[in-house]
Amino acid sequence: MSGAKKSVSTILTLWLLSMQMADFRAERIMGEERNDDFDFDGLPGTQHEFKLEVGGGMEECFYQRVAQGALMHVNFEVLQGGDRNLNVMIRDFRNQVVEGTYWKSDGIMEYTAPFEGTFSVCVDNTYSRFTHKLIYIFFMTYVLADWKAYIQEFDEVKNIAENLTHSMNNVELSLHQMKMSQTQARFNVIKDFYLVWGNNKYVQNWSLAQCLLIVAASVAQVFALRRMFRTTNVTPTAKPRA
């Protein structure tokens, strides 16, 4: 019995963790549904959690279709009303009571369905004819094999997500390194441009200076040679040269 309780506690813990984490199963709300019965949360099995007010001398029931071999778990607690005691029962499709808790303010019931069918959970307040009672109910059904398959699939999707995250981090790091390389290359291009521009200006200025120097030297040489070979038709004494 203790092993069964531990198994139920494990399943409940997995259920609560799965409800808090993201749902990786795709659900089609506007299109076709994955199962015949609409799946509200994408988890295997069903879960209902609600408050119910039961009038004095009345009995309220709600119904749920259950798969063969599924474990039904019912947890209830009376919040308000009189002595806060009432009857809670699980009935099969023949309206026979298969599990029940009688005249208590809280309790836990579990039942494994031997066949597929519609079961009902009934809250009986017929013994309190004039007292309304407010009851909190948590109802869950699941098949252990489906839960194991779901957890395995969940772990596989988690591993895929971790691998994808690692790959995306590597891609992001590569892009960052590429941006740094491109930035360094642009800096080198700018530096080389100003170096070439400075060298070009230096060469142009020196070439212009050398050209001016050559022209000036050529003019001076021509002037000197012409002055050197310049002669007159008369001598300094005004006699004609022979």
Structural features, described:
The chain is of the alpha+beta class and 242 residues long. The chain has two helices and eight strands. It has helices at 2-20, 144-228, and strands at residues 46-54, 59-66, 71-80, 86-91, 97-104, 106-112, 117-124, 133-142. The strands form two sheets. Strands 1-8-3-6 form a four-stranded antiparallel beta sheet. Strands 2-7-4-5 form a four-stranded antiparallel beta sheet, with no helix packed on it. Strand 4 (86-91) and strand 5 (97-104) form a beta hairpin. The termini are far apart. The model is unreliable at 20-42 (pLDDT under 50).
Brief summary:
The protein is α+β, with helices and mostly antiparallel strands and about 240 residues long. Helices cover about 45% and strands about 25% of the residues. The protein has a 4-stranded antiparallel beta sheet with strand order 1-8-3-6. A 4-stranded antiparallel beta sheet has the order 2-7-4-5, with no helix packed on it.
Q: Residue share in helices?
A: 40-55%
What is the makeup of the main sheet?
A: 4 strands, antiparallel
* Overall mean confidence score, pLDDT: 80
State the end-to-end distance. Answer: 154 Å
* Number of helical elements: 2
The counted number of beta strands is: 8
Strand percent estimate: 25-35%
Give the SSE order as H and E letters.
HEEEEEEEEH
Shape: rod-shaped
Looking across the biggest beta sheet, what order are the strands in?
1-8-3-6
Structural class: alpha+beta
Radius of gyration, whole Å? 49 Å
Indicate the low-confidence ranges by residue numbers. Answer: 20-42
